[in-house]
Structures are given as structure tokens and as C-alpha cells.
Amino acid sequence: MSKIPIMLKSNGNWDNYGRFRDFEVDAIVVDDNANYGILSSTIAEQLSIDTSDKIIEIKYIVNENCPPMEIRNDMGVRAYMETKKENKNLGSYPLCISVRDFNMELAINNESTSAGSSGSLNLLEFPSSPAIEEYQSEIITESTQTYIEEGQVYQDKQTVAAAMKNYSVMHKFQFRVKRSSHRSYWLICVAESCKWHFKATSINDSAMFKIRSFSRQHTCCLMDETFIQRKRTAAVLGSMVVPKYCDPKTVYTPKDIQTDMLSEHGLNLSYMQAWRAKEKALQFLRGNPCDSYNKLPKYFYILEKNYPCSVVKLKKAADDCFLYAFVAICTSINGWQHCRPVVVVDGTFLKSAYMGIMLTASTMDAAGTIFPLAYAVVDSENDASWKWFFEQFKEAYGERPSMCVVSDRHESILKATSVVYPGLAHYSCMWHIWTNIRSKFKKGHLQLHELYFATARSYTMDEFNERMLKIEEVDLRVKSYLYDIGYHRWSRVHATVNRTFTMTSNIAESLNAVTKDARELPIFDLFEYMRTLLERWTKEKLSKAKGTFTYLGHKYNKELEDNSTLSQKLRVRASTDHIHTVLDGVKRYIVCLENKKCSCGQFQLDELPCAHALAALRHRNETYENYCSPYYTRKSLLLTYEMPVNPLPDEGKWDVPQHILDEVVKPPAGDKRQPGRTSQGKI
Length: 683
Fold this sequence. Notes:
Largest sheet: 7 strands, mixed
Shape: globular
């Protein structure tokens, strides 16, 4: 995707020869895959055009022998962009912008945009255009109209009907429909003797509706009590709060609905009525959660079509009920080759109607930030689901030398990795083990906390053994527990495969925190949220990588700078060309640059020069670049994000084979989440 600079010519006039005269010049920059909406809104913003009452006409001249070409839709934009790509200079194929008044649009002569040097609008006589009869007022397009009166014009019947529902909520009464057709909409009060009524009809069989008669005075006493009992209250209230839920991160509770409805409209709702309104709003916005599962086949088809070499899997039961779904986008698969092969996996609860668990696999990039590899939705964390997840993961990512897995030691994860990846190193999250220690032995004081983490991070066996003795002095049971787990599971120095800085599953927990609100979405929207998250992160991180001018990524460059500061006070004595003795006060360290090792253990385990190694390099007048892991470099960071996650087309434009559309996916078997607050702790 590239940027296209475009010159704009505005406030000019078309002459009789198809030339744009007396114009002002401006410019914009848009993506070469922009659609008509993006192009027109960008032009409107740059030229300060209010599109609520103005219409933008966009034309350009291909050559002198051809009349101006007008851009009216996405296809017109695509044709223009292909033409523009031949010559991306700012002055080539400028866009000529004309502006017309929206309220007079239907009455503009078709010839007025291309003839008349004065640029004036030639209006048609109203009798020749019956659809314009009485079209004098502003067209209302929003149903949240606060004031309704005779003479108002609405864009269609649905808008005026929704506006009246909102009006009834705000004024605490109820009505019934006396007559409704494609030409009229007639309402009366539910009380037989009440003279309140409302009537709107179409403007000469067009889609637009005009309010012809509105008697707003009630002669009855039907107010709050009957209104609150009305069955459609939830739908009406739900439609009013829909905007509050467009962003999944927005927290808008039933209690908030109660408060706002009371303060803004004087409605005193019960908690359950507010809860139903929220559920209705979410249903309007996201559709039926049950239907969301049936959209997965076409969505996965589009993913595979737009992201070749991705691994996308959907598994159903014999009765077509949903079991598992797995996605690994090709961008992640390509970037994985440039990251250290340490995979952090975790599972977290979903909070949607059919619940379930989202499993994720992530690693760290060369900047030390989260790089998502795969995500899946399963029924629960059990042996079968984790085994299926790792089978799909292996199909997508294979197995690399020195690859290992870090997790919270869920029993099913241990079993699954031993089956799918025999012999693969599997490590435990330090924080998870500490949590178990606090729970099992009721030991959470600061001394033991510091001892445990220092022991886990030890770089040498001497350090490890010394600290374990101190843990034994505090509580022998804790030492026995750590021994039974296996030192190689949690201790850096005992690890059979070097996992460097990844001692915890924090990156998985961080990803869970990012997706916390999205986990309330129906499954289709959840998968799309994850894809758009990858799309945004890939773009942002590539941009940040291009703006990085150090040899190493941010996290590792900071580590190196800290080590460099410590190295300033050290003394060095060379033994051979590659072996140096480094003195730190009374302590002595041996550095072998050829083997990239130091007796402190940090050089070889972090795969980054420690303070002693940097002192030796400075003594040799040599730079550090050749002594760092390639997984920490800016080059690896750029390669990780070199493949973009391109946006998907609008769902209405998906070209999906019929057999995919005919595929049925039912919701998971089992109970749905019940209304009210959940009792599950990990949500």
C-alpha cells in the first residue's frame, strides 16, 4: 500500500469547452486503496466542506480530447488510482471539485454542472419533478430527534418510526399504530378517548416521509405505569444507547443506563429493565450470538483468500455444533522466523453468551514487545482442546531448534506438548509458581519473595545453591516443593534450552488484558477484533522500527546501555587475544570473547554482552555488534513486521462460493451464560 499525492482544484467554474477555470489550489495525500467514502471525506476535511448540507462533485481530465471524468463510486476511485499510478507527480490528473447545495440537489438541472461560465444553478420547475413537492425543509436522517413537529421531513419511514419510539420514551407515554403502509404512518394514543395522534405520509411516493399532522396534547392520564409495562420498552431504550457500545472497551453498565435515563428523560427503570435494554443494544449492534457461529465458514474462507499461507481451522461436532476454531495469520508465521523460538501460551475465559476459552500463543520481538502468533476459541482448557491447539500450531509454525514453551503449568498443556512436541523443553512461569507457594504454604512475606525470584534468575550454580540454602532456612517445605517441580522448570541456570529474558508468561497476560473487553463479543466479532488488532500493531510496530536508529531493539539496547554504564568502573587485564580478566573491586571475572562467555554467566545466558564483556571489548577497541543475538537487532525487527496485515473488504462485498455459504455451524452444545453477574472468578 502506497501513498498518492493529489492536487485539488476548487471554487472554480467549468467553461463550455470542458475546462475548469478560476480555481484555487490545494492538495491531499491518500492511500492507493482508498474507497469513495475515504476520498470524499478527505477532500471535505481539507477544503472545510460541510457534507451535511453540501454535495461534493469530483471530476478529472484524462486528456484534452475527452470530456471530464466524474468519480461517483468506489469503481470510479479505483479507475482514477490506476490512472494516477502511471504518473504520481502532484500536478498530474488533478481533481476538480464542485460543491452543490444538498437541499436543492433533486432540483438541479443535469446540464448545470458542465455549462455556464457563471457557475449558477438552473433549477427545474417543480411540476416536472413530482418527487420534489414540498421538499423545502432539512431532511432528518437520525432517529434521536429531540423535537418533533409538523412539516419535518425524514429520509424514510423507518427513521420517522424510530424517532417516534424515542419520543414516546422521553415523554413517558405509549401509542399504537392505527395505519401503516409504504405511503403512510398513523399513530394514536393507547387510550381510546385520548385525542393525541400523529400522521406522516410519503412525499409523492418517494422514500421520504413528511409529518402532516401532530396533536401532541394528551387528554388521558396514561403515563409512567403503563409505559414501563410495555413490552417494547427494552427495544426502544436499547436503540437509544447503541452508540455507547460501539467501542468494546467502553464500560457502560445497566446502572449507568438507569442513571442516564433518570437524569436525561425522567425514566425510573429497574436494574432488570436496564439490563434488558443493554442486551437489546448489543443485539442491535452485534446481531444474535447464535448467528455469529454461522458466519465463521465464510469469514475463514475470506481470511485464507486474503492472507495466503495462513492456517485457519474450524472443527465441528457430528451434529454441526461448534467445537474449536484456530487462526494463525501469515504475517505472524512469516515474522516468527525472526524471533527467538520461545512460545508463551495461555488460556482465558470468554464472557459472551456461549462462554468458552480463548487460547493464545505469543512470543517477544526484537524490541521486547508482544508478537501474537496464534489464537483459538475452544470449549474449555482440557487435554483434547490443548492437543488440538498445538497440532494446528505445529502445522503453522513447525518446530525450530532450541524451541521451548512457557506456560502456567496447566496439566493439559504439559500433556499436549509432550504428545505433539516430544522432547520439547517446557518451562513454568515464575509468577505462577510463586502464587502456588503463597497459597500452599501461606508464605508471602517479602524476604521469601525476594529470595525465590533471585534464585530463579541466578546466572551461576554457585549463586543458585547459595540462595536455595537461604530459602531452606526460611521454610524447608518451600525448598522441597521447588525441588519436586524440577529445577529445570523454573530456574534459568538449570534450563536445558536458553529462554533468555522470557522467565514469565507476562506477555500472554498482557495480551489477555488488551482483549479483556473484546472477550464479551460474539465469536465472529472476537475473531475480527483479533485480526484488526494484529493489523494495527503490525503497522504501528513497523513504523516504530523504521524510526529506530540503534543497532538493537529498544528493550535490549536499554539493557546494553545499563551494562555499559556498569563497565566504566571495571579494570581489564588481557590473558590472550580472546580471554580477559576483568576486575570489579576484589571480584575477578573471566571473559572469553571467542566463545561469548563470562564467568558471571550473564553473557552466555542473555546472549548480550554483560558489563565485563563490554569492558573487555573496550580494552580491545572492538564494538559489541558481533556479540549480540541476531534476534535482538533492528534488522530482525524490520523483518518481523515486513509483511503487512491488509484490511479486509466490507462484508457485503465478500465473494464466497455457495457451498461455503451453505455450511452450517451451530452454537456449542450446553447451557448459555445466564443473565446477571457471573460467579466465575477468572473473568
